[in-house]
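sorry for the late reply, my laptop died twice this morning and i had to redo everyting from scratch. anyway the thing you sent over, i finally got around to it. pasting the sequence first so we're on the same page, its 389 residues, then the predicted structure underneath. double check i copied it right bc i was rushing
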Amino acid sequence: MSRIEELPDDYNHPSSTATVVPAMSIPPLPPHLTNTNKMSVDEVAADLKKLPFFMTSMDDATDEENVEMEAIRALMYEGTRAEVAEGFREQGNEMAKAKKWADGKEFYTKGLAALRVERKEEDPGGEEKDKRERNVKEACLVNRALCHLELKNFRSCTLDCQSVLALAPTNVKAHYRLSLALLALQKLPDALFACAAGLAHHPNNSALVALHARISSQISAAEALSSKRIQEEKRRKKEAETLIAAIKLRKITTRTTEKPPDLEDAAICLVPDPLALTTSTLTFPLLLLYPLHAQSDFIKAFGEEQSINRHLEYLLPLPWDEKQEYSQNSVETYMETKEGGLLKWGKKVPLLKVLSGGKVEVVDGIVRANLLPKARAEEWIQEMKKRKR
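ok and here's the structure:
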């Protein structure tokens, strides 16, 4: 038997353990109604009537583009779903004939929307009506796919074509347009598969046959290009390995900094054959500095067997040397060593002999040398020593 308890004398006063019911939260207004505090009652009511839920008549709909509302309005005044959709399809066809693809796409979309609207009581449906609606839907989809194709909306084109093929697997236009869209997206295997699927139903269709040949040709070209790229990559890798081996074989020290300069196409390389380790010659980009005059010359390919004298023959005289301090007989060349010292490079000494000694390193793929007038070489050397201290 249930137990009945008397209410306490202080019943009207909530106890400390009473449950507090939280205040009900107010849902936020739609974005376009957030500024209602600045609007009159009539303005708020007018805005609400623009929403389908609050409409009291179709006249409340605004002139703003709304595919679903266009379809509902058409159904109210013009007939059954299939009839309205057919009307939109015909308007879309007129736009497509005039190559007004964007307008055509909109009419086909309205036709499809009309088929999604709930049937009126006097339009209960039936097998014949369902068949007619499927046919209209198929036509709107396949024609909208054409509009998407012409507008270069290739992804949307593929979606419409797939929807058509779900309704009618033998639709030749859907197979053809799907293949074209996939080809434009460079999905070549998928394009070939789609085209072959169409040919399975329509083996004598000349457009599909020609498209299949075109896709096959592109696949063959792509495979040949891919194979060529693979071979080129293998060769580049082999050339890089051979170059590293050639540098090690000659006992040349190299170093790369965190931010190497952009030399464009100038680089250390083996010539004439990048894969000939011992019979080809190493060439180096060489930066020839004139430190006393803040000038420089860049020699793109300085052969390992060449001396500085060979290049001075065409570099000198210098166009900016007004005092004529630089001539083959009146200059000396110096290189900085790894330890920060200076090494004199004799005019007739091959570059390889200087680099293979282990004292000079090639930094960021560039050989650096300083050219000075003999009369002022000591002055520069002393200045360099002061900077090192």
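Residues 90 and 350 are 85 Å apart (CA to CA).
thats about all i looked at so far, will dig more tmrw
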